[in-house]
Design brief:
The structure is a homodimer. Helix content of chain A is 78%, strand content 0%. Chain A has 11 helices and no strands. The longest helix of chain A has 24 residues, at 119-142. Chain A is elongated and about 55 Å long. Chain A starts with a helix and ends with a helix. Chain A binds a DNA duplex through helix 2, helix 3 and helix 4.
DNA sequence: ACGGTAGTGGACGCCGGCGTCCGTTTAGCT
DNA sequence: AGCTAAACGGACGCCGGCGTCCACTACCGT
């Protein structure tokens, strides 16, 4: 679908579009989801009208902007699945997902609150969760994972991880790391 | 200090003040900290001016409104300290604090983000944390608590607990309960 | 090079929250 | 009952974000 847009879009327009997405990504990541649309436009070096023409709503913008973060999520989960030791793979996934979410304030809220109509995000989210379920199934069979573990526990942890506030990104990442370690401890058989 | 105000305040004014605080408490709890001041005034049945006269800033209002929640925190910690089994007391404290925070959206953010100038809150917070430190010290000596546990871990958990979002209060409380159980699991030796 | 059209962004009006002023009401004392 | 000062709240102006319109610009095919 992006391809069709790419084809019919003029070169300068495409350029602006890219800069808008880049600006949105960085601003969402550092300042969270409540940055004014104006501000994103300013940083991208375009007028408000251009921004609104490309992305009529903030959700549309967020959905596109977080596409690569979503892919990063998938890569992380796939790496976990590829690990010969499922328990070790699961631990890696937890650590990396927590860090990813800690580095990007906006993505966390986008992922957890999962706005009503961001179906594109939701679909990918479901796919990632399915892979996670498979990974936990394998990890449980190794005996290192608590037998009464359920997938919801992991989701719970990820959501809770999003509640970690801090003044700087570094502090947030550090807190997130400790938190991931505690979570793994809680999941161990 | 409240006494002095009480004395010099006219009866109807005192009445309004009470209703404002009650309205603020319920609205902060259900809708979080970002409710408009207007809305609180409306629910309390007073004009905006009255609200602003009593509480010039939202922080002032929040500080007073959460005073009893803060006391509830103290009671919980004290109960934990009074428990003959420190480890059991600690578990109770974790469960109750998580639930308290889950029931009151506003209080959670007020407690964790701890606005710059809400020194009254901050002072009580520190006192509670000191008691918590004592409790964890005792719990560790029983051997049921992980030897490498630090107080910051508990704070981390409480902050993370604040990240649990849900549509209804009941759902949030349920999630919080599961989360507390996981946390206790992570802290066990 | 040039015309046509896609694309742009400054400017505009709207809305909702904020904090304050002032004419009116009412508690409380005599 | 009557007076006075305290208290009230509706109304006002301000600000910042939102979404849109239109006169101008610049790309691209010929």
């Amino acid at each position: 679908m992006t391809e069709q847009l790419t084809r019919t879009l003029r070169s300068d327009a495409l350029d602006n579009r890219q800069r808008i997405l880049e600006a949105a990504r960085t601003m969402f990541a550092t300042d969270g989801m409540d940055v004014p649309m104006r501000e994103i436009a300013r940083r991208a070096g375009v007028g408000p009208a251009t921004l609104y023409r490309r992305f009529p709503t903030k959700q549309a913008l967020a959905t596109e902007a977080f596409a690569e973060q979503m892919d990063a999520c998938h890569v992380i989960v796939d790496e976990g699945l590829a690990d010969p030791d499922p328990w070790h793979g699961l631990c890696l996934v937890i650590e990396k997902l927590c860090e990813l979410h800690a580095r990007d304030r906006g993505y966390t809220t986008a992922f957890t609150t999962a706005f009503p109509h961001a179906m594109d995000l939701a679909a990918k989210r479901e796919a990632a969760l399915a892979s996670l379920a498979e990974l936990t199934r394998r990890a449980r069979s190794t005996g290192h994972l608590r037998p009464d573990f359920v997938l919801d526990d992991l989701i719970l942890i990820l959501m809770a991880n999003g509640g970690l506030h801090a003044t700087s990104t570094d502090a947030r990442v550090a807190a997130s790391r400790r938190f991931a370690a505690l979570a793994i401890q809680a999941f161990r058989a």
